[in-house]
Amino acid sequence: MKKSAVEGSLLLVDDDPTIIQLLSRMLSNYPTVRFATSGVDALRLCKEAQPDLILLDAQMGDMSGLQVCEALKADVALADVPVIFVSSHQESELEVAVLEMGAVDFIRKPFDAPQVLARVATQLKLKRLADDLRRLSRIDAATGLGNDSAHAEQLQREILRAAESAGPVALVLLELDFFASYEALYDRKAAEACLVAVADALRRSIRRPGDFAARLGRDRFALILADTAADDALHVANRALRAVEALDIGHQGSAVSRHVTCSAGVACLDAAVQGAPDARAVDDRRAALERAADAGLAQAVQAGRAQACLALPVFAEAGTDAVGEPD
Question: Is the pLDDT of residue 297 over 60?
């Protein structure tokens, strides 16, 4: 069998081991082919390592393929994973139903090997293109950092992941000090070069693969720190401020330094207040975290700039997030 030109990780889901074996042989040239014989196991495997494509049996005993697909589409982290349904049923109503649910294709049993290979290869190619477009649409063109949309999505994803693992997640908001004065004193080219240099310094200040840096506005940036407690997040924020100062970019219009500096606000959702969230709870926690970081940034500015201040979100008993006073 000719090796597929498209690489990718596949998850085969069927409660019939014979079907699993048959598909596994057909798709053996792909580098990663995992399988599950129940819907529960399929969802668990998806969360452990997100596949590039799922081949999902429509009818299963414990949990139907439609229920599995519904659960996937409801999960922020898994909603974009393409699903090809497989079924021995010939009714067009089932095919229409799964496509309306968000499936990308429908393959009927018994399988035709060339057809299966062609459809799998096509969907993996389309996913790669979609992923590339998604990445490009979420990158700030000037600095190469994530943009506002990417930041919002990443923050929501990390809040959900932190809740599931009962771990913390932190947010750092940074703002260049007196950047309006910098733009007024220096030309546009110098201002753009300054932003690029600052973005690079912030990127270097986060050292773990799971951390994320974004540009939120003309002179505002953010760091999302996965599994990071408040004190550690404050340490990262101060490291980022030092990295910006170390650039030694002259700034005659600054009232706090002879070179470009940043102020920062730090906030953290502590593991102690985490719990299984619904969609509204995730939105509430994100809003509370952002308000707290913004409050910390405001305090840093009021305290004289070029420093980081911490503010902790406080959860009301009724379930509504409120922000306490900055530390």
Answer: yes
- 82 lies in the same domain as 186: no
Task: Return the residue matching tokens 């590339």.
Answer: 132
Count: domains in the chain: 2
| CA 311 to each of CA 166, 253, 303, 324, 326: distance values in angstroms, whole numbers, following the listed order | 20, 29, 14, 7, 4
What is the pLDDT, as a whole number, of residue 277?
A: 58
Cis peptide before 110 (omega within 30 of 0): yes
DSSP for 46-68?
Answer: HHHS--SEEEEES--SSS-HHHH
Calculate mean pLDDT across residues 45-66.
90
Residue 287: inside a domain, yes or no?
yes
Mean pLDDT of 164-179: 93
The span from the CA of 186 to the CA of 37, in Å, is: 64
Domain that holds residue 286: 148-323
Number of Cβ within 10 Å of residue 242's Cβ equals 13
Q: In this model, does residue 91 exceed pLDDT 90? A: no
143 alpha carbon, distance to own chain's centre = 19
Residue 2 lies in a domain: no
Same domain, 100 and 158: no
Task: Return the closest-CA partner of residue 225 out of 279, 187, 270.
Answer: 270
- Would you state the pLDDT for residue 315? 56
Torsion sign over Cα 16, 17, 20, 21: negative
In terms of phi and psi (left: phi > 0; alpha: psi -120 to 50; beta: otherwise), the region of 53 is beta
Is residue 4 included in any domain, yes or no? no
**Partners of residue 214 on adjacent β-strands:** 146, 222
Taking Cα atoms as reference points, which of 196, 217, 203 lies closest to residue 260?
Answer: 196
Q: Give the DSSP H or E segment for 85.
A: strand 83-87
Residues 6+ apart with CB under 8 A from 102: 69, 73, 83
